[in-house]
Amino acid sequence: MTESILTKLVVDPSSPKAGHQRRIIHRLVVAATLVFVVGSIGLIVTMVVAVLSN
Predict the structure, then answer these.
(1) Could you list the residue ranges that cross the membrane (predicted)?
(2) How far, in Å, are 7, 10, 46, 50, 52 from residue 32 at the CA level?
């Protein structure tokens, strides 16, 4: 299932579905960015708490 989607994405980017697939990719990128930002904030908060508690 996933392989066929990836193949379609690579082989035929000019198809009508390309916009939909681009939206999915955009959503994945946004999700990954959010996870990264939240993780970074969590790491900074953890470090600050560790420094303050010493």
Answers:
(1) 28-52
(2) 22, 21, 21, 27, 30
Q: Which two tokens stand for residue 53?
A: 């508690």
Mean pLDDT of the 4-18 span: 59
Spatial contact of 9 and 21, defined as CB atoms under 8 Å apart: yes
- pLDDT above 70 covers a percentage of the chain that reads 65
Query: Which tokens sit at 3?
Result: 């392989």
Q: Answer yes or no: is pLDDT of 19 > 90.
A: no
